[in-house]
């Protein structure tokens, strides 16, 4: 599920970085206009990018906002907080929810695909031509289920599975004895 969430978020990360870069560029331009001492946090582009990223992730250090473009900086601060904090991070939650729902919907198909690959592997390992050499045979394939009476803990489920496999093996041995 984590791999699917990461792969689904690749476009989201690009758009988020573009937004952070856009706000960082705005803070950089306003920082270049600042002649105050101490300088505004966005005086260089890396500092402006870091400032925009920190604002977007919830760090609201506004101690260096006392420049001549203070009103414009506060407007950009509000927009940065609104767009990155609220909109983008709610979008992340929605993407994660959709991915979780998709993974849950496809879980049974993935499980059946894995079982089929195990059956194919077993078919590769079990050489029927050698075992049944010179015999005519019919393969009977039926679904076997282990009834769950273990409650919900793994130990109970494993014991139930062990019991089911032992019973199935005994049934197969009895059936083979009847054929001879």
3D shape: rod-shaped
- Major β-sheet profile: none
| CATH C-level class of the largest domain | Mainly Alpha
Low-confidence segments, ≥5 residues, pLDDT <50? none
Indicate the CATH topology of the largest domain: Helix Hairpins
Number of helices: 6
Total domains: 2
Distance between the termini: 50 Å
Strand content: under 5%
What is the average per-residue confidence, as pLDDT, rounded to a whole number?
Answer: 78
Overall radius of gyration: 32 Å
What's the helix-strand series?
A: HHHHHH
Number of strands: 0
Quick rundown:
This protein is an all-alpha fold and 180 residues long.
Question: Could you describe the 3D structure shown?
Answer:
- The protein is built from six helices and no strands.
- With 180 residues, the chain is an all-alpha fold.
- It folds into two domains: 2-105, Helix Hairpins (Orthogonal Bundle); 140-179, no CATH class.
- Helix 2 (10-32) crosses helix 3 (45-56) and helix 2 (10-32) runs antiparallel to helix 4.
- The protein is rod-shaped and about 100 Å long.
- The chain starts with a helix and ends with a helix.
Keywords:
single chain; 180 residues; mainly alpha; Helix Hairpins; 2 domains; 0% strand
């Amino acid at each position: 599920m984590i791999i699917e969430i990461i792969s689904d978020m690749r476009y989201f990360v690009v758009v988020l970085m573009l937004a952070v870069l856009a706000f960082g560029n705005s803070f950089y331009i306003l920082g270049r206009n600042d002649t105050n001492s101490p300088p505004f946090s966005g005086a260089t582009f890396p500092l402006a990018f870091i400032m925009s990223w920190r604002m977007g992730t919830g760090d609201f250090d506004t101690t260096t906002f006392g420049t001549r473009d203070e009103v414009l900086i506060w407007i950009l601060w509000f927009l940065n907080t609104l767009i990155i904090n609220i909109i983008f991070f709610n979008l992340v939650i929605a993407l994660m929810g959709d991915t979780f729902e998709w993974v849950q919907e496809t879980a049974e198909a993935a499980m059946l695909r894995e079982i089929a690959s195990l059956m194919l592997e077993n078919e590769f390992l079990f050489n029927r031509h050698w075992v049944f050499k010179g015999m005519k045979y019919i393969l009977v394939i039926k679904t076997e289920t282990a009834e769950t009476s273990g409650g919900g803990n793994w130990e109970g489920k494993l014991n139930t599975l062990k019991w089911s496999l032992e019973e199935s093996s005994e049934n197969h041995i009895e059936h083979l004895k009847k054929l001879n």
